[in-house]
Design a protein that fits this description.
Elements: H1 6-19, H2 25-29, E1 35-41, H3 47-53, E2 59-66, H4 69-78, E3 89-95, E4 111-115, H5 123-136, E5 139-153, H6 159-170, H7 185-195, E6 199-204, E7 207-209, H8 214-231, H9 236-251, E8 256-267
Parallel strand pairs: 1-2, 1-4, 2-3, 4-5
Antiparallel strand pairs: 5-8, 6-8, 7-8
């Protein structure tokens, strides 16, 4: 299944919600006005908006960005209508290339958000995003970027080879010549924002998948192993046997998986994190 298909995005939404770093919300709330604009980049089905809008007080105007019109339709229709304090939340959708956003495009925006996006960008694209956000004076909440660490229990001798191949796939050069950052994205983004004088707060946000999430385990395993084999085809003979073994464990409720991600809260240079 494609990483961007609605069914996959809805399936992973509970795991995303459980993983998101809630400790970043209070310092963010302290720096938002009573009436503010949020731009959600690469919004998918709107899961971040559904999670965040109800956790922030104040009148909210969400602008959802994605290249996929089907996903935008799902997202626009599903955000909550009221904020944490009962204030109204309104939503518009704009199809556009989020890598082309610059400071002028963010004029009037208080907060830029994104989920599972940074690892799909290049170094130049993250640098440009950091420059746009800081120049526009926005805060940013950038969540659930993969960091390359996976823990499976019980462990298997093949785990490290597959993890290394998957991480290399995440750093691949795409058909259009873009070299993705994959697991390096959180570090690169944190450095880019810090160099521009912004305050950056980092937090872990790991998926923790137990026996009650067998279907998510199955689809994640198939994607993880599939990407590893695409990157390193010589793994296929052992990977096929490995995948079958892991899928049987997931179906039997015997597998536990921790898939690590990183979250970043970015506050403009003029702001400081509340104690």
């Amino acid at each position: 299944m494609s990483a961007f298909e609605p069914d996959w995005l809805y399936l992973r939404e509970p795991a995303d919600a459980a993983a998101r770093a809630t400790e970043l919300i209070d310092p963010l709330r302290a720096h938002l006005p009573e009436d503010f604009v949020v731009r959600d980049l690469g919004c998918g089905t709107g899961s971040l908006g559904r999670w965040l809008a109800a956790r922030l007080p104040g009148t909210q105007h969400w602008i959802l960005h994605d290249h996929d019109t089907e996903l935008l339709s799902h997202a626009q229709a599903s955000l909550p209508g009221t904020a944490l304090d009962g204030s109204p939340v309104d939503v518009v959708a704009e199809q556009r290339d989020v890598t082309a956003l610059r400071a002028a495009d963010l004029a009037g925006t208080s907060l830029v958000t994104a989920s599972a996006l940074l690892d799909l960008l290049t170094r130049d694209e993250i640098t440009a995003l950091a420059s746009a956000v800081v120049e526009a004076g926005c805060a940013a909440l950038l969540m659930l970027s993969v960091t390359g660490k996976v823990e499976l229990s019980p462990a298997d001798p093949i785990d490290p080879a597959l993890a290394a191949a998957f991480n290399a796939h995440q750093r691949r050069v795409t058909e259009d010549g873009r070299r993705l950052l994959g697991p390096n994205a959180v570090d690169v983004a944190a450095t880019a924002f810090s160099r521009l004088g912004a305050t950056v707060v980092r937090a872990d946000s790991a998926w923790r998948l137990g026996p009650d999430q067998a279907e998510l385990q199955r689809q994640w395993l198939e994607g993880w192993v599939g990407a590893a084999v695409e990157q390193l085809p010589q793994l296929r003979p052992v990977a096929d046997v490995y995948l079958q073994r892991r899928l049987e464990m997931a179906a039997a409720g015997e597998l536990h998986a921790v898939i690590h991600h990183g979250d970043l809260l970015v506050l403009p240079p003029s702001l400081e994190v509340a104690a």
